[in-house]
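Deviations from the work plan: none for this task. Representative record:
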Amino acid sequence: MLSGCGGGGGTKNEAASVAAAAAPADSGTVTLIAQASGNKPEPLAEVISSFEKKHPDIKVKAEYLPIGTTYANSLRTRLRGGNQPDVFYAAPGGGGLTSLLNLADAGLTADLTQQSWTKGLVDDNARELFYKDGRLWGVPFDRVVVAQVYNGAALKESGIEIPRTMDELLAACKTAKKQGKTMLALAGASTENAGLMASALAANYVLADEPHFNSERTEGKTSFADSKGWQSTTQAIVDMKKAGCFQKGAEAADIPQAAPALVEGKALSFIIPTGAFGALRGISPDLKLEAHPLPGVTAEGTNLYSSQSDALAISAKGAKNGAATTFLKYVSTGGGDKVYAEVTGNLPLKGTLDDPALDGLSGILADEKHVFPLIQLPWPNPEVYSELGKGVQGLLTGQQSPADVLKSMDAAWQNS
Amino acid sequence: MTTTLEAPPAAKTERPPQGRPRRRATAPLIWLVPGLLLLVTARYVPTILGANYAFTDWNGLSSVYNIVGLDNFVAIINGQDSRQALVNTLVLAVTVVIAANVLGLSLALALDSAIKTRNLVRAVFFAPAVLSPLATAYIWRYIFQVDGPLNHLLGAVGLDSWGRSWLADPTWAQWAVAVVVVWQFTGLSMIIYLTGLQSIPAELAEAAAVDGAGPWRRFRRITLPLLAPATTIALTLTTIMALGIFDQVVALTGGGPVGKTATLSTVMYEQTFSLGRFGYGTALALILTLVITLASVTQLLVLRSRERQIR
């Protein structure tokens, strides 16, 4: 039975009280919880170490919890149960269990709007993910890029050129298959990874012609099932399967099975956030990675996800702790973002990273018209993305048609 | 000559002597009070209090929620995912209960002998029951993966075409899960049946053999009836465990492919802790509790009645 930690609930339509974050202070102790990244060393631990050198009178006590439902439910329990950390990791937007705007709605995050150092911090294309009712509820500390990441050595050995269009990608899949390799590693049993692959396709198929799909879906002007872009996205997965783009057994594979395929060169590429570079290099330090955009229908129509997609927030309890504000200020504007980027492979908030693995993205990253935030971040609940991830598995096993997947996503949207 | 098939006097329930002082009979109840209080306050009271969330749309986070009446139950009944999970749960439970008990009883009969290595063999068969379900499920996951030992074995004996992605195959995934659960439950039922077998006096079977009863008749007319108490325990326990199955499914398939192996427990977890639908998840938990209670109580009543008939 789910008695859980539901205490304190009520049916009254009470407005959540809002705490404003205190001004930065020079001393104190900050408690922090975040999801473990899979990188060694833990990137936020490196940021904290760097912060404490600059601010010797502030100590940060951090706790890293397993990514996914463990972190999400621990965070929610602690925020609701009176055991709040001062600072915590949150996902920008409003759809997920750790989504910043959901937590703000529940009165569990501090208002950062009045902090002068936050002005201009959030990109225009990510504003709706950090602000609600004109107030800022968390700060970004990196820029997440989702790309097709190649094993450079295996790619060179195969003699395959980087595909620039979807047709070229499908042809490359067939060539790789003949060589006993696969073009793409896919963790089809992982909702997160399968969903990310489909989402990366949607960047090209949906956002190229329907850049305002999310707002139109919210207003009920369109649906997943009616969207030509989404129809093409799901059909592309079927086409990729037919072309042999994915490894054998991809539908049953989890990330711990798919990632080594890239590292060992059995798969030539993997669609992942560049923030996973650290984890991949942890498996094989000599691994030569090359990130490129997942090709669209045409080279000119190819888009890329790059946006401020990770956030740190101050809890209602931490609002009184000026040291917590100092920590967030350092992470966003004092150089913490650069330390984080160097460990992970994500980009810092300003500028780029001196990593040869990212050279293939430099052109498109400078082209604002083709750079978007992840399409799923503003979705109203986590079920929509979950249905997308499950749908990829359903397409691979033949249990679902593209239309079935889109219908499930529309149904999940209604559960908001 | 005929053999009278009656349970030995020792097997009958002994009643306390009529003249025993009342004070001594109530003493054990007093010692039970602290444990009962702890159980009621730590388990049953929160469970009953938590049940009211089944009638709300609480998201597990907000301090505001609405009373939605029976909406969550209606959504469960109308929901394709929850209906499929209910069917999956029942199919898995029936398969596991039958297979684990038939295999457990067979092993118990085979190992209820005087062979020298019987204790070692019993330990080997019982080991899966005491191992972590998660740990063993991950081992089986490796066995079942597309380039895993099972497909290699099939290839080695010329059955390459039988190889498949077992845990993502819409037809075979639920049977693969069933194999793992049966493997894990068989040891437990074996031990229960072994205990039952060892309480049956050997003289009964020997007398029947002298009277000319063959092994099958002795098993059917003597062993099986006298195993009734053990059968009741084994069937009830495996039914309750199989209806609430969770760890193995999560570790092997996560409920996939596309809900083909999802059970009421995994859907309840997903809806509650992955999707934040605490009201819906609590309603699902109530339904699961009802299913387990109904199944186990019905089974218990039928089996107890059978036991009484045998006595």
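The domain at 25-143+308-348 of chain A is CATH 3.40.190.10 (D-Maltodextrin-Binding Protein; domain 2).
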